[in-house]
Amino acid sequence: MVEEFTRLSDAVVPRLYSLLLDINFETSSFSGVLDVAVEVKQETKTVTLNSRELKFLSSPVLKSQDGVEVKSNSTTTNEKLETVSFEFPEAISVGKYELHIEFEGLLEGKLCGLYESQYISTIDGSTKRIATTQFEATDARRCFPCWDEPAIKAVFQLTLNVPSNLRAISNTPILDESTLKDERKLVKFDKTPIMSTYLVAIVVGEFDFISTFVDEVEIRVYTAVGNAYQATFALDVAAKGLKFFTEYFEIPYALAKVDLIAIPDFSAGAMENWGLITYRETRLLCDPESDSLSSKIDKAGTICHELVHMWFGNLVTMEWWTHLWLNEGFARFLQFLAVEDQFPEWKMWDNFVNNVHYPVLISDSMESSHPIEIPVKDPEEIKEIFDGISYAKGGSILRMLNNYLTPEVFRQGIVHYLKRFSYRNTQTEDLWQALSEISKVDVKSFMEKWTSKIGYPVVTVEEIDDSKDEISLRLTQSRFLANGKKASDDTIWSINVVMRSPNGEQKFLLAKETDVVTLPRSWNDSWIKINYGHYGFFRVSYPDSLLQKLMDPISLQILPCIDRLGLQEDCFALAAAGKIPITSALEILKAYQSENDPNVVSSICSCLNSVRRLHSGQIYGDTIDDLINRQFEGLYRQLGFEEKEGEPVSITKLRTMVLSALSRHPDVIAEARKRFKAFIQDPEKNKIPGDRRGLIYSLAVKYDGEEAYNAVLDLYDKTPLQQEKQRCMSALAKATDPKLLDRTLEWSLSADVRPNTAYVPVITVARTSYSYQTGWLFVLENWQRFYDKFPTGMKDVLGHVVLAFASNFTSMKNSDEIRDFFEKNPFSEGKTKIAQALELITVNSERLQREKEPIERWLNDWKSKQN
Ligand SMILES: [Zn+2]
């Protein structure tokens, strides 16, 4: 019989967990004594809570308020449901009790629950051991038995028994510290606010830190001993971020301190434990010498993202994981607001459209996508929704709503919502309600379909010739699918269509399948940009007449960069789905000949790369490289390879984009190889700036064989910086010699590579057109070794690896191979990604058949016109 997942009963609920944990590095284990104040709300003989891989040392005891103790007479664990049930001889009547439980568990390197991480000290070369936690979504139960559901909030008071030379850190400040025998100490922490179990955190180890205050709140950034110099950037961003959100939300930060700590072995990017935010090192620490601009932008984003959660997620929490987007969508959207505030020169909203909005429009166009709100049950399903839909689509539809309601009204609605639900749990509907009360707009009817339905629409525009003076457009919406098919569902979204001409702006709410909008007379004969600003989460299909009128405003850059970017993204997506000829998408690039905005350049490059990947095995494949080179080489001539002193950030960014677009251009290749040789000969004299390192290392490995390969491997071994190690790993995956490629993949599975970064080489190989086939065979042959190498908390990342390989495939044979392979090798942690992979291969295969002939003809014609 298959046991159905059910949520915990609310017959008995926790109010205060008093937890004493004894952490023992010598035996790689921990033991705990938990006294939890519970309220019995319905008479029961059994208390059931969550527990996983814990051993119970004695029979739990239930103590009533008048001191009567009852011992449980049986303890039953259920591995499938991850629960433990304590049965008592008599029914327990309604009232308040204290439940006493003693247990123990293992301290392993699983990267979930309470686990061990290590680092090598840069000061004395010794190994430093750390005990740390990662509980979201469902792994608090691996550390102590608990009601491990976000809605079952309680207060936590932790006490840790640890070696006396180590620092113990938790959510709240230390209340009391006392020395024990055998060089151990007892550290008692202040009570937490009422909160969910997944936000509890513990870190024990040797660390340095730097700190500052924002109002009364102390902010510390902790690093491995000797690395505090890498914390300056993070501390500055966090201090400004905390101030920004305190003002934006009009609610003070709830705790006395917030710590940000870099953990050497970490499964996610970062985790928003209340008061003790944990980060992967590469998401927090910045080396002033070698960090690139793009990595600083990413780090500032992650730092602010976690700070948003102190309110969105921690203070107000989703009632169940189905509403995860209330955490992640908000954090994704508001992190950009805070970073934009600190670094206006970074143009964060242009970055948002390029790196958040458009990528998720691509993934959400698959039939195998899912709605933002999706019923989830067991831990594996829950883990799978920490994906682009919750984060990026969630963030994108909030940007849309922010624009629709206007930023200030949106903010006031958010403040209202957070104040109303502080220390409580919510569902999506509660948010709509609060926003409606402030805005006086029916937010639910505007937003409901965007969160409850799968996918998004394309708005097809037709000009109506009604012989009147005015111009009328017929707008028709239908779900956009990457395979170009008609969707089986007939969702009608509420679409705020913003239209712009040189003579003004007009908005139109398209809430039917088809509607007609009449535009002012003054708009006759002028260009009309639809979805102006690309706030709307949809694509636009223009009639040729309107599209042609947009070419001049694009080439003259009258249209803002977001609109130039969005227009070509939509055209390439429509072409990929077979809605317009691929040659039409290529034609419009002529209007982008003098494009010089970094995000537009990057987006054109990724659209062309997707064409290049699909056609890379064809005889005309190389001509696509020529086309890409021709598109960007003018910019390269202007910008050069080297940064000029005092140049604006936008130019630095543009150069990085252009060089990466031109990674197959002979001049760029030659320059990179030359610089790498010089750098290896004399690294001090011939420094490579951070912005250029990744590209130069990769091109050196690709073109200079074993000598460069060994040099990069040596750089990896010698650097203490994780960011630099990551660059080296990607570069080593760029080898062209199959023997070297094999060596990289073997090495990624060896003890020389930390399990939490083992995915970097293999995913780089998957994204490399000349090596993915060799890499795929290696993965299939070594599947079990990859599975074992990836820590328990990161098995799902292997699903991303499979998807990355599959995105190259154009033959249904590959699809059969993947299906057969995973039938024989069940991989439940990656089932969504496998479904997406299979769908993508079908889309690619149909697309290639459709595009082959026209693209070859178009390219031959293009080639004949080049000198
Ligand atoms: Zn988050």
Automatic annotation (TrEMBL):
- List the catalytic residues: E306
BP term (GO), one: peptide catabolic process
Topology relative to the membrane? Lipid-anchor; GPI-anchor
Q: Which UniProt keywords apply?
A: Aminopeptidase, Hydrolase, Metal-binding, Metalloprotease, Protease, Zinc
Q: Which Pfam families match?
A: ERAP1_C, Peptidase_M1, Peptidase_M1_N
The chain positions of domain ERAP1-like C-terminal read 527-841
| Domain called Aminopeptidase N-like N-terminal: residue spans | 13-199
- Cofactor details (free text): Binds 1 zinc ion per subunit.
What are the GO cellular component annotations?
A: cytoplasm; extracellular space; plasma membrane
Q: Which family does it belong to?
A: Belongs to the peptidase M1 family.
Which residues are involved in binding Zn(2+)? H305, H309, E328
Localization per Swiss-Prot or TrEMBL: Cell membrane
This protein's cofactor list reads: Zn(2+)
Report which superkingdom the organism of origin falls in.
Answer: Eukaryota
Site annotated as Transition state stabilizer: where? Y391
Q: Where is the Peptidase M1 membrane alanine aminopeptidase domain?
A: 233-450
Official protein name in the record: Aminopeptidase
What is an example of a GO molecular function annotated in this UniProt entry?
A: peptide binding
Tell me which EC number(s) this protein carries.
3.4.11.-
Kindly report the protein's main subcellular placement as a broad class.
membrane
